[in-house]
Amino acid sequence: MLKERLKYILAVILYGTVGMFLRFVDLPSEAVALYRGSIGALFILFYRLALRQRPELKAIGKNIVWLLCSGIALGLNWIFLFAAYVNTTVAIASLCNYMAPIMVIALTPLILKEKLDWRKIPCIIAAVIGIVLVSGIIGGGITGPAGVAFGLLGACCFAGIVFCNRKLKDISAFDRALVQLAVSALTILPYVLIKNRGIPLPKDLKSGLIVLILGVLQTGVAYVLYFSGMGKLPVQSVAILGYIEPVVSVLCSVIFLRERLGWYGWIGAALILSAAVVSELIPPKNVQSR
Known about the structure:
The protein is mostly helical and 290 residues long. The chain has helices at residues 2-16, 18-22, 29-50, 57-62, 64-87, 90-97, 100-111, 121-135, 145-166, 173-196, 205-230, 235-241, 244-255, 262-281.
């Protein structure tokens, strides 16, 4: 169990460094997202073939509708999140994106027809207050309003991925990741072609190397570690350990990029992360505590 836990933690740490690396790439954010999805999908495909494991086409076919929807949502999430990284601080973009779990809680009664647990309502309120503080409205003006908006749009798409994945049945995590990454790249491709009149190439060696690292390490390797680890971990551990990612994003933003969050921002970050973690810790009503 320790080995799986370490794999999962390493995966979310890698995810958390994406925003920092993106700042050093001389490419449009949507082009980076395209390269990331394409390289990541190819890496997972070759990884599985190296293990002599072929994609299960029958399982993919049975889930194709929800796989397409989740892949499209993933592509849109990356477009909005990467745009948020460019238009505001990495910390604020990441925290806005991590409003997704709270959105899932709030929207579950409407989409999945499940009753909202009243014990989680304070978590929703705390997260909303947190996002207001992080945005900078109270502290003297919004810090990158476009970035905040893009981050929240990314969170909406993130929530869509969660709902789509709830509909998937009898398909391996690797096949799910492979199809979702491939579809995300295809989703981003038309946007990149129209906006840039073609697919932009890295303008220097540094940008090319970073794009390759993002595709192989922060996407391909991270997805392999993520699904290898989460398969044997309790669901609650998976949910809570996942919040290491925004913490890493915030720390990278402050330590390496010298971005300031401010006191209001730190309070808001604590509210968002605490609300999300507490909401995961609340057991279902039909489960009695011992």
